Amino acid sequence: MSRDEKYVGAVDQGTTSTRFFIFNHQGDAVSMHQLEHRQFYPRPGWVEHDPMEIQERMGAVIRKGMQRAGIGPEQLAAIGVTNQRETTVIWNPKTGKPYYPAIVWQDTRTENLCRELAADRGMDRFREKVGLPLATYFSGPKIRWILDHVEGVADAAAAGEAVFGNIDTWLIWWLTGGPDGGVHVTDVTNASRTMLMNLKTLDWDPEMLAVMGIPRQMLPKIRSSSEIYGYTRESGVLGGRVPVCGDLGDQQAALFGQTCFTPGEAKNTYGTGCFMLLNTGEKLVQSKFGLLTTLGYRIGDQPAVYALEGSIAIAGSLVQWVRDNLGLIKTSPEIEELARTVSDAGGIYFVPAFSGLFAPHWRSDARGLITGLTHYIHKGHIARAVLEASAYQAREIFEAMEKDSGIRLTALKVDGGMVANALLMQFQADILDIPVICPKNRETSVLGAAYAAGLAVGFWKDQAELAQHWAVDKTWTGCMPPEKRRTLYEGWLKAVRQSYAEAGC
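The structure assignment produced for this chain is given below.
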């Protein structure tokens, strides 16, 4: 590579691993490195990460990614960050040491707190203000839990010696110096996942802080998704002085990376969970059908772009569960081969409500189940039901989006690791009865973070230039008879109702 050529780097900190990509001006990845981190399950429903391990992984993947590309920090025009959202870290800003493990977005320990807050006016009491129902998913209740249960943190917060961040904030703080002057910021997309940001003012809401009992001084400054937050330090992992200037939650980053810049465009990401977002433009659409109203992105001082989101907790992680807990496959890609040994799921449904059900149900009391078991069923049917579960859940969200937005969606852009599974993608097209479109560059989340960072420093001129990079790789078209589609989906909805605690499961 020419020593004069410039690139944009992006950190993709996900639920199971951390990756660093380097992109050229055409939006092509020229280097990547990835490392997994540990998952901790100290009690049923609890999920934790080690923030220091994640920070160390970030440093390691950046060093290796730069080494593989054969470039120096002076060739990086900018760095962006995308991250697992809602995962909550509280640390001492003087030492950089966390007070407690990171509480992961899947964690359900705050169920009682959410139930108490919803007792008077229901789970939607704050929805108009923050776009979210009261649920264990979001950061605000997690912050409150740490303040209440970890000795010394509440006093430290009152004294300005405990600060909060989702993973984006934690990593940007370290990239820009950590205890030595690191900037304490987040962007509008991550802030919109805390239950603490007012969707209209794009600032921390005093009422929500009071209800949750969270001191404002703990919280990062809310910035746009594309602007210079700070610079790397000579003594840091990169060396040099590189602008850190892109920040998007992973699903919003995928929306941006898919160049869904026009209201009415939608994408679905199939990763650990499954997340569908619909661009609603500058219009803030309040959901009546169980979706989340969230920030899509905000570029510099341009108006914020809003989105409707449907969140599924368990998608790719269900395949990992089948691999690790049941031992039916040795590697995750083998799930497709096993599923292809049968022509259908044999009448069974797998509802993966391991952490309750997210959109559009929002039932923390739901629990996972398999229905319809007979002597006929074998592991091939289970594998197929595992894959079909993601497609059924996506249809529930798709229908809610159409009802909320009043827009008939005619296609769905898809990305994430599971799009490599052609059986799943074909079934998704069949059960939706619309084309499912996969782009050539499937790493849309990290690409979206790179795009945001590059725009902030003029590496790319504008969003129109970014849209020119998007190209179709493969399209799946539905071919299922309407009556079969209806019957299968009705069976799924029945299975979901059986997963509710009140149904006796």
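Interim note for the steering committee: The mean pLDDT is 93. The first helix runs from residue 51 to 69.
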